Amino acid sequence: MRQLLAWMWPMFWRRRRALLPACVLALVTAAAAVGLLGVSGWFLTATALVSGALATFNLFVPSAMVRGLAFVRILSRYGERVAGHAATLQLLTDLRTRVFANLLRLDAGQLARWRDGDLVARLTGDVDALDSTFLLSLLPLLVGGIAGVVVIAVLAAYVPAAAVAVGGLWLCVLLLAPAWLARHVRRSGAERQAHSAALRQHVLQAVDGHADLLALDAAGRAEAALADSSDRLRAAALSESRAFASGQALALACTGLAMLAVATAGAIALAEGRVGGALLVGCVLAVAGLFEVVAPVLRGAVRYGTAAAAAERVREIERAGPEIVDPLQPQALSPHGTLEFRQVRFRHHPSLPLLEGVDLRIAPGERVVVTGASGSGKSTLLALLLRLRDPQSGGIAWDGVDLREASLSELHRRIALLPQDAPVFLGTVRDNLRIGDPDADDARLWQVLRHAGLDAEIRALPGGLDQWLGEGGRTLSAGQARRLCLARVLLTGASLIALDEPTEGLDPDAEQAFFRDLPRILHGRSLLLITHAAVPLEVSDAAWELVDGKLEKKAVRDAP
């Protein structure tokens, strides 16, 4: 619990102004609940005892107190729910932003160590398990602690013999039982989060690869794996439910014992004339109200195992600091420079050769095409260029400055990449374009669309720049989506554009039209084009083929 609180405390402190009203209203609700039962018991008993002489008993004050406490409880409970959930939603925002920011700072190699479904589970399921830590775990503990101190103090004044027994049972429900439950469910909570992540992974894999699963007759195995993960998740959830049921039974038993202790000790005090019958009944019901307030602590304890496991999974991302970092004293890069690969060597695995001494030079405004077989390292070449990875030997320089000596932000202002699987995001045309430059005005957006050869199609859309594109750009053709992504890259203002299989999925006519437009689109910028396609002669100034980890120059007229 201490580790979980220490990790989440900065967020609690940041949102203290939102959390404080929830705490105050929860205390008011608890006080009203305990007071309502106590006053009601006292009022009914006192009324019964003086039924023969009601003229001498003031009915208005206790009845007004009962009504007042009932209304206070209703209003404060409503306010507590509103304030508590509003604060929880703010904490949820902070948690998701924190996790997403930690994911963004990791490099491509680190992200590849996690499966897509696992990352989604950490960003959604794990965060959801943490967002109610305050509302369901900490707040009931705080309210139960304060309410218990007040009730036991009252008992010590009127029925002191019962105060010790009630105090022990109260501590059992408030501290001992939750501690036992939290320890008991910690393992099942960790298993629940792990199996939930596995279940998400199986679903994502089945959705993304359903055609392959059907074609390879592997649907049965996928269903079996999904069912196994679902069964394991159900078993972990059942284990938590059984633990919670045990806690509830313990809380009910402690409630009954506490009420019995007050009634027994109170009966002795009543016989000795030290306490009145009406007050005794009020104390018994007040104790029942106290344990009703403390009972939610057990629900929070059951959730603690899940929350602790979720926090540990999220902290794994935080502990995985980026391997690609800025130098302490970054050097400036000139706006337009010559790019040079100098004996660059890189292997994903020591026993698997990939890039073995690559040399390449791209002058300002030069257009260079690199071809090669699948798996020869072409995409790795681009990853090294953008410093998504660093070469294991050799170096890449921009006008003589090694890229590792420059800041990543400045490097990405000089070099922009259009990857093979560049996405069209859910949103409008304007939203997608402004990823390249958030401050671009409409005139600038139309300019890059015109350079990309897409302005006429966008103007023909009903919404123009505000046209909603749908998930994955489903309202656009493959060629239009590719040109939209290219326009986004052009908007960055980078002086060197790197394209990775930009015509993948296009028909031959659209492919050749795209290549012929490249000189006009680039508008004097440098180009590094990675492709398997046949590039028209007039597009490239130099052509290379990646063979056995090295670049072999080809005559432009022989370029594929």
Structural features:
single chain; 560 residues; alpha/beta; six-stranded mixed β-sheet; four-stranded antiparallel β-sheet; 19 helices; 10% strand; elongated
The overall pLDDT average reads: 84
Main pleated-sheet profile: 6 strands, mixed
Structural class: alpha/beta
Radius of gyration: 34 Å
Give the fraction of residues assigned to helices. Answer: 55-70%
Shape: elongated
Strand order of the largest sheet: 6-7-8-3-9-10
Query: Spans of 5+ residues with little confidence (pLDDT < 50)?
Result: none
Q: Count the helices. How many?
A: 19
The ordered string of helix (H) and strand (E) elements is: HHHHHHHHHHHHEEEHEEHEHHHHEHEEE
Tell how many strands the DSSP assignment holds. Answer: 10
Strand portion: 5-15%
Distance between the termini: 63 Å
Structure summary:
With 560 residues, the chain is of the alpha/beta class.
Which helices and strands appear, and what pairs or packs with what?
Blueprint: H1 2-14, H2 16-49, H3 60-104, H4 108-111, H5 116-123, H6 125-131, H7 133-158, H8 160-208, H9 210-215, H10 219-271, H11 277-294, H12 296-319, E1 339-346, E2 355-362, E3 367-372, H13 378-385, E4 393-398, E5 401-402, H14 408-414, E6 415-418, H15 429-433, H16 442-451, H17 455-460, H18 478-490, E7 496-500, H19 508-522, E8 526-530, E9 542-547, E10 550-554
Parallel strand pairs: 3-8, 3-9, 6-7, 7-8
Antiparallel strand pairs: 1-2, 1-4, 4-5, 9-10
Could you explain how this protein is built, in words?
The chain has 560 residues and is α/β, with parallel strands linked by helices. The protein is built from 19 helices and ten strands. The strands form two sheets. The protein has a six-stranded mixed sheet, sandwiched between helices. Strands 2-1-4-5 form a four-stranded antiparallel sheet, with helices on one face. A hairpin with a 2-residue loop joins strand 4 and strand 5. Helix 8 packs antiparallel against helix 10. The longest helix has 53 residues. The protein is elongated. It starts with a helix and ends in a 6-residue tail after the last strand. The model has no long low-confidence stretch (mean pLDDT 84).
